[in-house]
Specification:
348 residues, alpha/beta, Rossmann fold, 2 domains, seven-stranded parallel beta sheet, six-stranded parallel beta sheet, 13 helices, 40% helix, 18% strand
Length: 348
């Protein structure tokens, strides 16, 4: 058995960080690492993982509770992992100092959001004195460390997906565009709808299908109704497997205001679906403008709408973008390639 890697993730819900821990742990196990988890008692990750775990009851203030900290410290001392991977600020506050006291060789803080870390005394101590390696999932996310760690000291480990070999080519003639996102402010679905209103001025038969649920759902429904868009813009609700329906569409639109790294772009590229996004966030690291899709100035919905209308009217260009996108995904964002990046952090 190889080195023991401890993934620490105290989130009860399932999101990008949990998915990354789940997938990365399996890829590392394939390479001979021993995998262990620290999770919360009600964790969705606990339900999915196939590896050993210890469960705790951790909140954002557990780092102030000496009784709970001792339980975690005792378990950490018993297990003695070679490396600890911390999922978010909660794990950083709770475990980083304990791991340092035990002289654990690698204490890795992975960050998947672009919001800068608060520059305060506690965070400076934890990131600069306890953490041995900082990891970001995109160049955009690297900026979240900017106040505490020099950019050159942040390791880039992209998200990745398994390549799909048997795919159905998208319907480039359909003039149907898909958004797959949580219906929340940071995902910018309202911006996507505004951009599509411009699309309809040039392509009145185009359609936008929005998959997802969230707190802005009623607000978006009202906006669609008030602007007479109901025939062309449809809220489709939750879909359990978005990649399986991507072949019904001409392009995928990611209108996010904030995005550390969007797996949905990789899923679309793997299925030869052109990707569309605003500048900023992670989009320019994934999409090559005018080659695999469109990256347009944030957050100019009129300009974006005009570009989408032009793209979906040209099936040949959509097909070329889709083929280029798949090649880019295979060359840069497969699980094998991004696991190589993670192994480098664990071994170099």
């Amino acid at each position: 058995m190889g080195k023991k890697i401890l993934f620490v993730n105290f989130s009860n819900s399932w999101g990008g960080g949990e998915n990354w821990c789940h997938i990365s742990s399996q890829e590392l196990a394939k390479r001979g690492y021993e995998i262990l988890f620290f999770v919360n008692s009600d964790s969705k990750l606990k339900e999915k993982t196939i590896f050993r775990y210890h469960q705790f009851n951790v909140t954002n203030r557990t780092f102030l509770n000496p009784v709970k900290l001792k339980k975690i410290a005792d378990t950490l001392k018993k297990e003695r992992p070679d490396a600890v991977i911390l999922n978010s600020s909660r794990e950083l506050k709770t475990v980083a100092k304990l791991a340092k006291k035990l002289n654990i060789e690698r204490i890795i803080y992975r960050r998947g959001i672009i919001i800068p870390i608060k520059d305060n005394r506690r965070n400076r101590y934890l990131v600069q004195k306890c953490v041995t390696h900082c990891v970001a999932n995109s160049g955009a996310t690297t900026q979240s460390f900017i106040n505490l760690v020099p950019k050159e000291n942040v390791n880039l480990v992209h998200n990745g997906i398994s390549p799909v070999n048997d795919i159905t080519e998208p319907n480039y003639q359909s003039k149907k565009v898909i958004i797959a996102a949580r219906l929340s402010h940071e995902k910018g679905v309202d911006l996507g709808i505004k951009a599509f209103a411009t699309v309809l001025q040039k392509q009145p038969d185009a359609e936008l299908h929005i998959y997802g649920t969230g707190k802005e759902e009623e607000q978006l429904k009202q906006f669609i109704s008030d602007n007479n868009l109901s025939n062309n813009v449809k809220l489709m609700g939750f879909c359990n497997n978005i990649p399986d329906i991507m072949h019904n569409y001409t392009a995928l639109f990611m209108p996010s205001r904030q995005e550390g790294f969007a797996n949905v772009l990789l899923e679309a590229m793997s299925r030869k679906l052109p990707c569309i996004a605003f500048t900023g966030n992670c989009s320019e690291e994934v999409i090559i403008n005018d080659k695999t899709g469109i990256v347009s100035e944030a957050f100019d919905t009129t300009n974006m709408g005009n570009k989408i209308a032009e793209l979906i009217s040209d099936a040949d260009k959509c097909k070329q973008y889709g083929e280029n996108g798949r090649k880019r995904m295979l060359n840069n964002f497969t699980l094998d390639k991004v696991t190589d990046q993670l192994v480098k952090v664990l071994e170099d």
